[in-house]
Design a protein that fits this description.
About 35% of the residues lie in helices and about 20% in strands. The protein is an alpha/beta fold.
Length: about 150
């Protein structure tokens, strides 16, 4: 008959001494850290709050309308309608949407109309009619020879 072999790694149970050592090291760490922390009132720091403006700031929504030499109308570099169209329905609808959205955002719409010196005069009138239908009143004019 064989005798049972005893294992060399006997179960010694739960060791509390290493756990107490770790707890003491953590306690010393927090005690040393607590001595370095200053109370917020001693530092007399003020946290940022809400800034109040003296007057309201107006945001202007500027749009660039260009009329080429051939009578092509572009709004912010996007062409609208054909040069032969006198009523400009696409441009008018876009300007009306622009006016509605800027009214909802409570901002002004400013349109800068850049007309080529050799563009037909009636084309400028057509664009002004589209602006009138859209109820856009802040319009500036300029002439550019580089179009």
């Amino acid at each position: 008959m064989r005798t049972p072999v005893k294992s060399q790694n006997a179960d010694v149970g739960f060791q509390i001494a290493p756990m107490i050592d770790v707890v003491f090291v953590i306690l010393i760490f927090f005690m040393a850290l607590a001595a370095q922390i200053k109370v917020e009132q001693i530092l007399q720091t003020k946290l940022p709050g809400v800034a109040v403006a003296g007057k309201s700031t107006e945001f202007v929504d500027e749009q660039i309308l260009q009329i080429s030499e051939e009578g092509e109308v572009t709004l912010n570099d996007e062409s609208y309608d054909s040069p032969q169209s006198r009523r400009l329905p696409q441009l008018t609808a876009t300007l009306m949407r622009l006016k509605t959205s800027s009214d909802a955002a409570k901002s002004k719409v400013v349109v800068t109309l850049i007309s080529h010196p050799d563009s037909p005069y009636y084309r400028t009138i057509d664009v002004l009619d589209a602006l009138t239908v859209a109820e856009i009143t802040n319009v500036t004019f300029t002439s550019d020879t580089d179009l």
